[in-house]
Fold these 2 entries.
Entry 1:
Amino acid sequence: MREFDKISIQEMSKDDMLLIIEALEYTGKNTNIKEFIQLRNNILQELSSLAEISEDEFLEYLKEETLSI
């Protein structure tokens, strides 16, 4: 098996991205395991940085894109 330090998200759909972000938030809130919220925040921060928009704007973008499909 190849080793890797980073995973590419090029092939991940917007639906999947939004689902992962929302699942991490839901799980973190309902289990009180802070690592789920931290992971959600880290992923959201990275994605919004790549898109060069705020985290709130990125979430709204994902929500709009997944509703329009």
Entry 2:
Amino acid sequence: MQNKRNTGVALITSLLIMAAGAVIAGLLYYYNVFSAWVVLIATVAAGACYRAFCLKQGTLYYIWMTILSVGLNVASICLTLIVSYQNKFGVPFDVASKAFNDMVADNLSSFIINIVFSGVFTAAGIIIVLMFNKRSQNKASQSTPQVEESASESAQEQPISEQPVAEEYVKIAEFCLKNFVGFIHIQDPQLRTVEIDNFRKKYLARFDANIAQNVKAALRKKALSQEEEAAFKLLDMYI
């Protein structure tokens, strides 16, 4: 559960991807090829890139992606019309720009279709990204409680003195260690405290003394990197 909150990088990289998509769409439109479908691919790719740098996709994400997708593609189509007119009649860019209204009137049906479908494919791309995110979150939430429940049942069946560091405790230990490695990478101390407290309430609070003891034992037997050692020390404060 490594928390990624580099919103600035997420916004910039998604902008670059959407800009590349708008350029491709503009080139296709220049050659009279239906280009709005490029928006779907660009939106999904930009959404995946955004999530790689910032897991939290709230209102800012949806507004940003909508404005980027529709805005850049409208700009791309308009620029394509001007460049097409400029090349056709051999006039300067500023002269071609003044004839923009006439160009739109001559290509009105194609212009409207591409604008409308840009919005449709933008919505479809955002929905695909949203469904993927929910599916990933559901898988993560379903796997962890099962490991903890099996560990609790095993702890009740055997005396502590007879219990080896069983596989279920190793899995719990690795799960906790992975999360605390993520926590030590959070730069904001206040945010780090909030995330650790949420994790403690959701998982660590359910550990009895036996589970906590076996988790620590499993981590002590594991060859830890320097980063994992720091994460283990932080974890040891909460269990």
